[in-house]
Amino acid sequence: MSAAAAASPAAPLLRVRGLVRQFGGVQAVRGVDLDVAAGERRAILGPNGAGKSTLFNLVAGDLPPTAGTIELFGRDVTAVPVRRRVRLGLGRTYQTSRVLRGLTVEENLYLAVLGAQRGHLRPVRTGADRARRERARAVAERVGLGERVDTVAASLSHGEQRQLEVGLALAPEPRLLMLDEPAAGLSRAERVVLTRMLLELDPQVTLIIIEHDMDVALTVAERVTMLHQGQLLLEGTPAEIRASELVHELYLGRGHGGG
Amino acid sequence: MSVRGARRAPAGLLVGAGVVAALALVPLVFSTYFTGAVASRALYVGLAAASLAFLAGYGGMVSLAQTALYGIAGFVMARLIVQSGLDPVPAALVAIAVAVAFGVLFGAISSGSEGIYLLMITLALGVITYFFFSQVTAFGGHEGINAVRTPSFVGDPVRDPQPIYYLSLACSVGAYVLIRYLGGTAFGLALQGVRDDPVRMRALGYNVRLHRTLGFAAGALLAALAGVLGTWHETRISPGTIDVSQTIQLLTIAVIGGLYRIEGAWIGALLYTLLDTYARGLTGRFETWIGLILLAILVVSPDGITGLAGSVRDRVRGRRARAAPGEHPSESLSRPAPLDPTQVTR
Questions:
Q1: What pLDDT score does B346 carry?
Q2: Which CATH number do you get for residue A205?
Q3: Fewest CB within 10 angstroms: A157, A257, B256, B275, which?
């Protein structure tokens, strides 16, 4: 991890150029350029329909772009399938929780740990499995599910499922962590816990976060990218974003507080 | 598996050992007729149903191609024994290998589909297989293949069904233990992950189609084993063994037993075989009665016989659960039964 970062300190960890995604007649993302440096904490903001989640899905590989290129860790990954991007060190969450409902918290996180490793098809239990389960329990502890490791994911509360969702992205120790509205539907207390956890992240991990909750987003982020109607509107520090009249007009004025 | 599983294991093992011991006594307690016509049959039909329950429960894939794989193993083995003069055991091993290879092929074809589409694709594969065996004369055409020799340790299953019964029992117990073990391995857990959310599994780094395909191969192994046992038991196989009505019958058996419980496959098979053997004599409307019984079971318990206890409990608590659905996440109420596999044997 550190070796790769040291090899090319100037090159951004994520470089997006001219990214376009069309859904029928609608252009959800319209020629976005984006550079995120290694270790950076970046928030992506914008009103509903700004193209934030589509941008996320393009970078993660869930959607193929209509045009443009995506470079991850100095490699062109535009045509690389999702699971290979994961092996490179990308972890993500979804806007609506996608936990493995029939499996326990520990089994969910075990699969997240295993996902980035070899041995997916092994039909026997090995010593490596024990290590993975230990790691799974450690991650459960970290996202506040230490007491719930043996609970089937389907019976977790909404907030707990969001915690597990973040755990699934964290468990493989990604170099780039992408969180899609991790605070959605969380209580105030749960948001505080989430914010604290994000602030305590390994400083080498690069974080890109989409968040409607400005308190969470602007506390965690070092830089903010504003999207509007599929295009890049503004980029700056949280202070600059707070000060921008354009942003207030478009977004903060309506969305702040209530969401 | 998990800590909870480890704690529960001794009790489960005890129950399992008791069931196996009781089953081992069947040929000594019951008549030769019952051992052959009911008990042996229930075991290998249960094994075939277990291949379906495995795919449905662990992989989220309700496959209608399991009778086809049963047939491929049965026909290939019968042909190798009768026409090529191969010994029964090597013939069986070759046949199982061929069926597993077809399982991989079937899996590769259907692994990109889910739900009703998967159902239709596997049904098509089953129908194609049926027509192949009913029209290709190398496999006996419509007549099928008769007078299939059995290994010496099986002997003549009609005169003495005891050896085939114990062989079927051993294979069934082996298959059950194997499935349960597999469920806790990297492969098995990932297969369950694919069942729950293929999109998430892809985002965790898994090759979803490969996993489904290999799940199909494992299911094919179970179905092929059943095909070998069934063909030995009957000493013959014909296309009628794998036609669409048999496919539906196998699905019925798995659903009656509880599609997402592996042991349910054998329970469903036993109930079906009992009815098939004894109820046919009592009434001319056998199929109607089977249909009504199936309907009754599914209305009371979408999870089949093995889910009956849970369903009754839910029904008793039902009013409370409906009053406060948010506080009481009773899964069977929020679940679109019976195609939600999250209640698999764990």
A1: 42
A2: 3.40.50.300
A3: A257
The string of pLDDT tens digits covering residues A141-151 is 999 899 999 99
Residue contact B189–A111, C-beta within 8 A: yes
- Residues B115-139 as b/e (b if ≥16 CB within 10 A, e otherwise) read eeebbebbbebbbebbeebbeeeeb
Residues of B in Cβ contact (< 8 Å) with A151: none
Residue A164 lies in a domain: no
Indicate yes or no: CB of B331 within 8 angstroms of CB of A154.
yes
- Closest chain B residue by Cα to residue A172: B204
Q: What DSSP element (H or E) covers B59? A: helix B41-59
Q: What are the residues of chain A with a beta carbon less than 8 Å away from any beta carbon of chain B? A: 60, 62, 82-83, 86-87, 92, 94, 98-104, 106-108, 110-112, 114-116, 119-126, 129, 149-150, 152, 154-155, 168, 172
In a domain, A122, yes or no: no
| A179 min Cα distance to partner chain B (Å) | 13
B21-343 carries CATH number 1.10.3470: yes
* B38 close to A (CB below 8 A): no
Confidence of residue A135 (pLDDT cuts 50, 70, 90): very high
Residues B306/B222, Cβ–Cβ less than 8 Å:
no
**What is the complex's ipTM, to 2 decimals?**
0.88
Measured between CA atoms, the residue of chain B closest to residue A98 is B200
**Domain ranges, ordered by start, for chain B:** 21-343
Residue type for A57, please? N
